[in-house]
Amino acid sequence: MQEKNNISTNRRARFDYAILETLEAGIELKGTEVKSLRSGKASLSDSFARPDNGEIFIYNLHIDPYAFGNRANPDPLRPRKLLLHKREIRRLTEEVTAKSVTLIPLKLYFKNGLVKVELALAKGKKVYDKRRAIRDREEDRELRKQFSKR
Q1: What would you measure as the largest C-alpha separation in the chain, in angstroms?
Q2: Quick one: three-class SS letters along 15-49?
Q3: Over the stretch 1-21, which tens digit does the pLDDT of each residue have?
Q4: CB 130: neighbour CB atoms within 10 A?
Q5: Residues 50-84 as b or e (16 or more Cβ within 10 Å = b)
Q6: pLDDT at 2
Q7: CA separation for the pair 84, 55 (Å, rounded)
């Protein structure tokens, strides 16, 4: 049985993007960053991943400096390398460049003691798609409210 402890989720991602595919990746971290993540000090908002020189890096992932660390605490917004197989990196690089999709982190969590990122290949939604999603959500809420009164 695999244990998953959720650290942080990107709640805006599913609203702003149409998710095409998800995958799991490891992330390269420094020691104090892991300690900070264990206390739940991370933010995925505005973060994204991008291929660079045959590797994939995640940008704008904010991990608070460890409270009991020293001056060797790493920069909270530094780019962090994602750990994927070469064939996955190659495939993702091709899809990002050819299909004009982007890599968005959806979740950051611990799995068997290791920090993992759930990445999504996503295409940006237009404004009218977002309005439709809001309208559908409100209609669904109204239907549930009517059924609960019965």
Answers
A1: 62
A2: HHEEEEEEEEEEECCCHHHHHHHHCCCEECCCCEE
A3: 455 688 888 888 888 888 888
A4: 12
A5: ebeeeebbbeebebebbeeeeeebbeeeeebebbb
A6: 58
A7: 8
Q: How many domains does the chain have?
A: 1
> 36 exposed, middle or buried (CB, 10 Å; 0-12, 13-18, 19+)?
buried
Residue 35 lies in a domain: yes
Our CA dihedral for 93, 95, 97, 103, rounded to 10 degrees, sits at -70
**Residue 113 backbone zone (phi > 0: left; psi -120 to 50: alpha; other: beta):** left
pTM, two decimals, is 0.78
Percentage of the chain modeled with pLDDT above 90: 25
Residue 47 tokens read as: 């973060």
The DSSP H or E segment spanning 141 is: helix 127-149
Beta bridge partners of 27: 82
Structural domain boundaries enclosing 24: 4-125
CATH number at residue 91: 2.40.280.10
| Each residue's pLDDT tens digit, 44-70 | 888 999 998 889 999 998 888 887 777
Q: Which two tokens stand for residue 37?
A: 């993540």
Higher pLDDT, 31 or 138: 138
